[in-house]
Structures are given as structure tokens and as C-alpha cells.
Design goal:
The chain has three helices and 30 strands. The chain is mainly β.
Length: 369
Amino acid sequence: MKKKFPLAACLTAAALVIPLAPAVAGTPSEPATVAHGLLAPLSLAVDKNDSVLVTQNFAGRLDRVRDGGGLTNLYTKAQWDVAGVETRGGTTYFLESVGAGGGNPAALKGYVKSVDQAGKVRTIADLAGFERANNPDGDQHYGFGDDVSADCLKGWPAFPPARYEGVVDSHPYATAVEGDTLYIADAGANAILEVDAATGDISTLAVLPPRPAVITAGARIPIDMAGGTVEAPACVVGHEYAFEPVPTDVEIGPDGWLYVSTLPGGPEDPSFGARGAIFKVNPWTGATRLWADDILSPTGIAVADNGDVYAASMFGNEIVKIDARSRKATQFLAVNGPAAVELSGDTLYATAGFGPGAPAGTVLKVSID
């Protein structure tokens, strides 16, 4: 069963069609284009020499951007999703997956891999195998609670399910690195996993909590990837539906905690409000707490040395800056369809430009001063 709709389903499907609204004015300075003509560049990393690595997720490519905007390919696996690039000490880590569940857990495939400076690729861990054996969110309840009767739910569509527990699904999507430890945001498992880069051992660090939304009168419920909707039955109005949390990025903050951005697992456009969030996860205990919410479709984050967070709001057509003290978000940069952000010193790098048609993805950079 595909669980996440509609943008969140793109984290488990090889398609990304996003209706773009006009960007809002107010850029801090004119960003420079580092690379263009990319297909779904949903993840990027910047090494200590300010060399940019970018994934073209649905093309199954990991590339390094050369001076002048050309690409040097580091890895390609056609028909697979390549994501979650991160680099440390000359080693580049990345994720690859295929299958996305679709009701068939045996079809899931997902791995953590690395490539060294000589181009040697190593498989570190089997994430899909871990999901099949453990299903970290298998005890977590989604959908309506017991306050909604079974008779009422006869009028609810078959999908999304009215009530269910977490099913076996895995789509490793983002990576953070600390020493020999890799932290993986798995958008299918709704969890943050911990991987020992030396041994390949995997454990569950945290399962993120559901993201509830109150069903309002006249609410339209998405029922397919083609944009089909049905009106919610009147008997569920005023009741909460617990949508899945969908981790989209994981970063290590200056306090050592993990910062995790999440999609709300239901409509990500403004129809249900801005329900995206950023959680903090204690890397020593797995304790999880909400840090900021009311963010529209945060698909990538970067954490500054002072604790400020920059978040790519894909549907909001902007990158927002969230103040470390007040946790209030203000627009930092207006840009169509941003997906990933990374900081290197006082420079913010971002991918942007998603929509239908030919590849239009770009990598941009802009000063945060």
C-alpha cells in the first residue's frame, strides 16, 4: 500500500509533478546558478572545498558539479532512486532504493552506499531488509481514532485508509554523518535510523510521531496521484485524522542534536494548512520533540552555527529562515520549487525548479549575510 499523498508519495515513487505558484518577492540578493538542466535534484552536499555534489534522484545519478556547471558522474543506477548524499573526509555517502512497497514488501530494496576518491563503491547496509525485519512504526496508529464510528467510516474512501498501523515500507531519503555513524531519514519507515558505517549494523533511533489534522467541513480528500479528490463525509468533520510523519532531511545541529524536517503525510498544498514540521532528536537517547511547525512542505533543511534553520518550502516557493530563539519563520529567498538546502560558511546552496516537462532543476548559491 502506498501510504503518503500527494507529495509525500513522490518520496516513494518515480514522479514529481508540482504545481508552481509565482514566487513571492523579497530575495536578499541575486542568487548565482551553479548548475542547471537537472532532473529532480532532491539532495545535495558541499564538501570542505566548496565542491558541490548533487543527486538527480529519479534519474538514478550522483554527480559532482564542475566549475562552469558541468557534471562529473560518480554513480549511476538507472531505474533506481539515488538520494541522501553527504560527504566526510574524502568519502561520499549516498542512498539508493527501488520498489516503494506498493503493497509488496518483498519488492523493497534500499541500501546505504559510499564511494571513495578513487571511485570505489561500497555497500554499507541493507535498509529495506531492516524494514522488513523490524518495521519501526508497526505499532503506531494512523487515521481516525475510536471517537469515529465504523458506520461513519463506511463513507470514507478506501485510500487513504480510515484506520491502520504502520506498514512495511522503506524509502531512505536523507543522510547525516557523525564520525562512523550515519543517521538516515527514511521517508517510508517514518523513522530515523542509525547505521554503523564500519560494520553496517542498523538500529532504530527514533520513530516520529503522527501529524494529526482536524477534518473541516467541505474538506477534499486526495485519493490518487492524478489529483482526484472526494469530499470528506460530514460525520468526520471536527475529528482528527493522524497522518504519517514523513522525514525529508536530517542534519546535525551545533548542540549535537539532530534536526529532522517532515512532510505531513497528507495534502501538502495549503488546503489543510501549513502542517510541515521540524523535530529535534536526541542522538544519544532517541528522545524526540517538536521544534517548529506551521511550515509548508519542508523538503530540506540546513542548520547554521548559531542554530538558525533554513528550510526549503517546496510548495511555498521559498526558502524560509527559522530563528533559533523565537522559532519564527520569515522568508529568506523567493524561489520556485526549492527542494534541498546546505550551508558552507556564509553561503547557502539550494536546489530548485521543479515542475512538469523537461528537466529544469538547478543548483543555486547565495550569501546569508
